[in-house]
Amino acid sequence: MAATARIGVDIGGTFTDLVLVADDGRRLAKKVASTPDHPEAAVLSGVSALLDAAELKPGDITAVLHGTTVGSNAILQKRGGRIGLLTTRGFRDVLEIGRLRTPDMFDLTWDKPVPLVPRHLRFEVTERIAADGQVVTALAEQELEALCHEFAQARLDTLALCFLNSYCNPEHELRAEEIIRAAVPDLPVTTSVSILPEQREYERTSTTAVNAYVLPVMRDYLIALQEGLRKGGVTAPLFISNSNGGLAPVHVAQKKPVMFISSGRAAGVAGAGHVGRLSDIANLVAFDMGGTTASASLIKDGELTRTTEYEFRDGISTPSRFIKAGGYLMRVPTVDVAEIGNGAGSIAHVDDGGLIHVGPVSAGASPGPACYGAGGDRPTLTDANLVLGYLPDRLAGGSMALSPELAAAAIEEHVAKPAGLTVIQAALGMRAIANSNMSRAIRAVTVERGQDPRDFVLFAFGGAGPNHSCDLARSVGIRKVVLPPEPGVFTASGMLEAAVEYFFIRSFACEPGAIDLAGLRETARSLSAQAEEELRQEGFDADAIHFDFELDMRFAGQDSELQVPVDPFSDDLSVEDLTARFLAMYEDTFGYVSSDGVESVNLRMRAFWPLPGTGERMPEKPGGTAPEPVSRRAVHFEADAAPVLTPVYDRHTVTALVEGPAIFESADTTFTIPPDATAEPDPYGNLVVTFRD
C-alpha cells in the first residue's frame, strides 16, 4: 500500500517553511525563499520539492495545513480592500472615537491609528434596535436601496455592516445584507452578527471592519493557492491555521479572515505547548524569531495563555487586555502573543543623534540582507551575525551562499562610520540593540502579566530564534533554554499537531449572584445543536466532534471579562464554584480581587476534533559521547574581548552533553551557546541549554 502524508506550511517574511510527515514515519523539511508578490508561488514550489524528496505523488497527500501572514501584512502595509462601512444613523464615527484613551498616557508623540475605513466611505441608515432586542425604529429599506447605488459608485471592494445592538436581535442586519447582496451582488459583505454577535459597539465594529478590509486580499490569495495545488495534482483538503492555534477549512478563512490574522504564529505556540507536555515542562515562554518579526507567548501550568482581544499595531502588538487603543482591535479567540518588529532581516540605521536602531523595517526575502548578494545594500541583523561568527557562509542546508565581505561593507557604510565605530563594534551594537528590543516581547508576557520570568523555561524556535535565545534568556533571568529538533521549521511542524476547530458565542447576561444554571445548560445545548448541524452540512462527522465551553465573567460595573472554563452539564456545577474559579483567575491575572458581585456576559463554545494522523512523538533514549566538531569558527561574544575559536557541531549528531562555547548547525538553523553554558539532548530530540552558575 502506498504511503500517504500531510504537509505543514508556514510563510514568513524571508523564508517559507514546509514539513512533510508520512504515515510510514518519515519526516522531511524544506525552506524556500518567500515570494512576497505572489506568496503562493513559494508554497507550490516547496510542496513540489518535498514530494520529489519523499518520492510521493501529489495524490498521496491527505491534507495541507497552512499558516500565512497575508492577512497581517495587508493591515501592516495598508494593502487591504477599498472598504465601506454601513452602520446605524448617528454611529458613523465609532471607529474614530474608539475607546477614548491612549495606550500610554505619558507618550506625547503617539499618533492615533488612521481608521481602516475613511470617513467619506462610512454610511448611515435609519434603523434602531434597543438593548433588549426590541425594534425601536424599523429599517428604512428605501433609504438603504438608495445607498446601494452609492456603494457601486464608490467602487468598493468590500463592505462592513454593523448595526447597533444587532447582537441581541440580528433582524435588521440580516435584512440589510439581503438587500445589499440583491442590489450589488459582486460586493462582499461582512455582517457583525456573522463575526462577533456580542455587545460593545466599538469592538464589534472594529472587528467587522478588519474582517472586511483583509477579506479581498486573503480570499484572492487562498483561491490562487487552491488552484495552484489542484493544477499540481494535490486534491487534499486545505486547512488554515487560525489565531487560536487550531485549524479551519479554507472556506472559513475566506469568509472570516479576521480569525486568521495571527495565522501560523499561534501554531508555533501550540506546538511549543505540545512539546512542553511531552517533556514534562509546565511553564514555558515560547519565543519565535523569523526574518521580519519576533514574538513571545506564555505557557503556564501546561496551558496556552489565550485571550479574546488583540490589537494589531506598529511597534509591539499585544493582547489589549492590558494595553488598549494602540491599534486595530480584533475581538476574536487568539493565543496571547506579544510581537515586535525585529527579525533576522531587520535593517539597522543611525539616526541624526548618532544612535543605532534595528528594525522595524525588514529587508525581507527580496532584496534580502546585504550578505545575500541579491541587491540589498542595507545592513541587517543577519549581516551582523555573519560578521560576528554566529552564522556560517551558507544557509538553508547549503543552498544559499552568504558573503561576509558584503555584510561588512554594508555595516561599515551605514552604521560603523556614522556612529564612529569599527565594523565589529557596530555589529555587536546591532545585535545588542536587537536583543534589547526582543526582550520587550518576553517581558510583555511575563513581567507585565505579573509573572516572574525566572520561573519559566525559554522555548526558542524560528529560523533565527535559537541564535538569540541565550542572550535573551540571560537578559530576563531565565536559566534554561529548550531548542526543538527542527527549530527553523517548527511552526510548520506545530500545525501538524493541531485540531480543526470552530467557534460559537451566545449572549448570556446574568446579574451578580443570579447566574442561571438551568439557562446556562439550555444555552450550551442550543450552541451544541447549532454546531452539529452546521458541521454536518459541511460533511463532518458530528460524532467525532468534541466541545468545550467558557463563560465570560466579570465584577459588576466592569467593562471587560475573563473567560472561565466551565462544564455546563456537570452535576457538580454551582454558582459558588463558578465564582470561586473566576476569583482565582482574576487574582492570578491582576494580582488582587474585589468584593463586588460577579456577573456573567457571554457563553463561548469551541467545537474541535483532531485530524487523522496526529499523535505524540515517541521518546528516544539519548546517550553516548560528545561528537567531534566538524570545524571551528571565531565568534565575537563580548564587545571588549577577543573572538573565541568555537567548535562547530552537526546538530543532529549530538547525543551527549556539549560544553560551551559551541555552534550547532543544521539545514534549517544555526545557533551558538556561550562559554558559560552547556547543551544536552533530551529524550525527544530537544537540546536543553543550561547556564552555569
Which helices and strands, and how do they pair?
Elements: E1 5-11, E2 15-22, E3 27-33, H1 39-54, E4 61-67, H2 70-76, E5 83-88, H3 94-97, E6 122-125, E7 128-129, E8 135-137, H4 141-153, E9 158-162, H5 171-183, E10 189-191, H6 192-195, H7 201-231, E11 238-241, E12 247-249, H8 250-255, H9 265-278, E13 284-289, E14 294-300, E15 303-304, E16 306-307, E17 310-312, E18 316-317, E19 328-330, E20 334-335, E21 337-340, E22 346-350, E23 356-362, H10 381-388, E24 394-395, E25 400-401, H11 404-419, H12 423-445, E26 457-461, H13 465-476, E27 480-483, H14 490-495, E28 499-510, H15 517-537, E29 546-555, E30 562-566, H16 575-590, E31 598-610, E32 631-635, E33 644-650, E34 658-659, E35 662-665, E36 670-673, E37 677-681, E38 687-691
Parallel strand pairs: 1-4, 4-11, 5-6, 5-9, 9-10, 13-26, 26-27, 33-35
Antiparallel strand pairs: 1-2, 2-3, 7-8, 11-12, 13-14, 14-15, 14-21, 16-20, 17-19, 18-21, 22-23, 24-25, 27-38, 28-31, 29-30, 29-31, 32-33, 34-37, 35-36, 37-38
